[in-house]
Design brief:
alpha/beta; single chain; 8-stranded mixed sheet; binds zinc ion; about 35% helix; about 550 residues
Length: about 550
Amino acid sequence: MRLPLLAAAALLAAPAAAQPAKPPKLIVAISVDQLSSDLWEAYRPHFTGGLARLAREGVTFASSYQAHAATETCPGHSTLLTGRWPAATGVVANQWIDQKHPRQDKKIYCAEDPNVVPSSSTDYKVSPVHLRTQTLGDLLKARDPRTRNVAVAGKDRAAVMMSGHSADQRWYWNGRAWASDLVRAPEPRSVAAFRAAFAARLAEPQPGLVPPALCQARATPFQVTPTITVGNGTLARAAGDARAVRASPELDGATLALAAALTQELGLGRGAATDVLSVGLSATDYVGHAYGSGGQEMCLQMLALDRELGDFLRQLDGMGVDYAVMLSADHGGMDIPERLRAGGVAEAQRADPGLDAEEMAKRLAPSFGAAAGGRPLLLGTGVGGDVWLAKELTGDTRARVLAEAVRLYRAHPQVETVFTAAELAATPLPATAPDRWSPIERVRATFDPARSGDLYVVLKRHVSPVARPSAGYTATHGTLWDHDRRVPILFWAKGLKTAQPAAAADTADILPTLAGWLGLPLEPGTVDGKCRSEAARCR
Ligand code: ZN
């Protein structure tokens, strides 16, 4: 059909709108693990690759939020494509305690099926069984079974929480190999070729990267322990070092290479229905844990990530796929306290190891003894966050132990406050923008009565939960403070009008916004976030 000349010209010149020109055939959802808004703001002017392109051509909410308190990888990823906070996804932490489980340590990993035998919290069967909500891929597949739901990530929990219950392909680096929990899915040919290429690369040593002036300016060494100095590293790796490969841009490069290969082989974005490709880029998190976020190492990682993403987007362009991109993070992070103090954050410090639940239980022992069977009165998974009372405690004794534990924690100079499960259960879910949430609202949004602790310990701001640093683990995240909560959210699609809204979006807004792009109806009351009219036509 020939269009009248004027109408054709009008179509060509269709102004960009707060909505893609048409529903994309492939949604590429990228999570950069530990990409805080602080990092985004520091490096945005220096990006020239993929991150610069997404920001320049798309809608950037630079200061958005993983709004809840559970700023860890599993809960954070569970919010990205479900529209829900952890209180609804059920993924309240990377690990929680289930005292009814027969395993010795009672620890349950967020992305495992703990009922598969043999399993433990460290040697487990990967599964989405704990995720109580549907992901974008799940919803699209329910609408049209021809949707393909594919995930590739540097961590199993990232791949699982972004793809959910109906993944067609799910691949992740498990520390030893590129693996999948989907044993019945046929293995694409490209996976074997990719594995061989990755193994060959891993067998070779990786020389350090050459830091540009931008990174050299951050290369001040900080001694964290007598044997660990960070700040001036170059992300070099010894031949065959499968552990060090995680804290290097090689992991993201490999993840993106496999994502591109699967896109090509499976014909993602070329089917009858919209496909979802979830990509979890984990190296930034491993670099952040190993070296902190303020040194030369993170600078090199940020610039490498930008380059790798640019290459990946060019590959998708070259395939002629009709794709759109959402990019965000599972949480932010805090730099090493040693460097923060040197930069003027006087209160930055490492947590007292005595705040560990088992240590606190020892302080309760003179008054209350141990629980039945000699078990400690308190159980936990680290310093700060959820603490559980031994299940053998009942009635009046339980109430007195709880009151004394709360008193002891609150009296500690590094503790901001403590919330009990009863206080959290009585608190309504927040209804304001995430930059206005009170501390108890942040914890409420991650409270699940069946999985959360009996009390929740909030460390003071800039108290690092890394009480005893070790090689590969000098800095972290996981608190309810903004350095851990603030993350960027980017939307990029053809025909989408560029914008940099100042509003604080919520990662729970991502699903309803993508639903706006795709005309996907969402049942009322099934999301915590809202469709962002700055990036989508919202119904
Ligand atoms: Zn993470």
